[in-house]
Amino acid sequence: MTDKTAFDTATRIAAGDDGTRHDNVAIALHWAVALLVVVQFAMAVTWDWFAKPTRQGLESIHISLGVLLTALILARIAWRLVPGHQRASPESGLVRIASKGVHYLLYLLLVAQAGLGFGFRWAQGHPVEFFGLFGIPGPYGELARPVRRQLHELHEWIGWAIVIIAFAHALAALYHHYVLKDRVLKRMLPAARRRSL
Ligand code: HEM
Ligand code: HEM
Q1: Is residue 65 part of a domain?
Q2: Residues with CB under 6 A from ligand 1
Q3: Which atom number of ligand 2 is nearest to the Cα of residue 41?
Q4: pTM of this prediction?
Q5: Residue 47: inside a domain, yes or no?
Q6: CATH for 175
Q7: pLDDT digit of tens for each residue in the chain (197 aa)?
Q8: What is the count of structural domains for the chain?
Q9: Whose CA is nearest to atom 29 of ligand 1?
Q10: 5 is a domain residue
């Protein structure tokens, strides 16, 4: 190790980074995606309770936030692909395979969900609008009703799958924190929060 890297390591450790925590960008993107997924789901399963104008308002917020969520998911994946931005799993053996499997499955479902959201909106013959600021036109026009129904159903099922899997994933993180008392949750928390835990 050169003097420079030894110095870098020492300052990093002194700053509270033991080399296993996720970086700040990854942490911010993780929690922003988690929050938006919950908001998206909550809106979609409740908008039927409201009268038409409110329901349509919620649907257009869902679509606009969907554009933002899609950008954040792609940013998260791109950031993770940059060398040095992955973190070794703290687990070993089967648990390590299972936890990695759940993470990859969540990424896959999130990308599929975003694609289906856009695909369905375009299939309705509309561009995907972002808070009235701009619209992203589709590569195709309105599609036949059975195709639209299928896209809608798939989007709805995957929405449920994401929320159920993410809930189990959150329970696992809490189990690590409160029962196993290890650093798995702490390494995904912002620095100030980690120090106080
Ligand atoms: C919809 C909600 C959520 C989604 C979609 C989600 C997704 C993910 C994904 C894809 C990863 C893998 C990160 C990577 O290494 O690239 C991850 C990691 C993590 N998540 Fe979540 N998450 C959600 C909610 C939560 C909640 C509520 C908690 C805590 C209670 C949590 C705690 C963690 C922790 C601690 C890690 C890091 C695990 C490790 O370092 O190996 N997540 N999450
Ligand atoms: C993980 C995030 C998301 C979740 C959990 C989610 C969930 C849902 C659910 C459950 C429905 C069905 C509601 C119903 O009609 O009963 C729905 C509808 C819809 N979603 Fe999403 N969604 C997400 C992301 C997106 C994205 C990224 C877009 C694309 C911009 C999008 C666009 C739509 C559209 C256009 C509808 C149909 C609205 C209508 O019925 O006219 N969604 N979403």
Answers
A1: yes
A2: 30, 33-34, 37-38, 80, 87, 89, 103, 106-107, 166, 169-170, 173-174, 184-185, 187-188
A3: 5
A4: 0.89
A5: yes
A6: 1.20.950.20
A7: 444 455 555 554 454 445 578 999 999 999 999 999 999 999 999 999 999 999 999 999 999 999 999 999 999 999 999 998 988 888 889 999 999 999 999 999 999 999 999 999 999 999 999 999 999 999 999 999 999 999 999 999 999 999 999 999 999 999 999 999 999 999 999 976 555 56
A8: 1
A9: 170
A10: no
Q: What DSSP state is assigned to residue 187? A: G
E runs forming strands in the chain? 128-130, 134-136
For 42, the domain range is 24-196
127: helix, strand or coil: coil
Is residue 11 in some structural domain? Answer: no
> Which-ligand-closest: CA of 136?
2
Instruction: Identify whether the C-beta of residue 69 lies closer than 8 Å to the C-beta of residue 109.
Output: no
Please give the distance, rounded to the nearest whole angstrom, from the Cα atom of residue 120 to the centre of ligand 2: 9
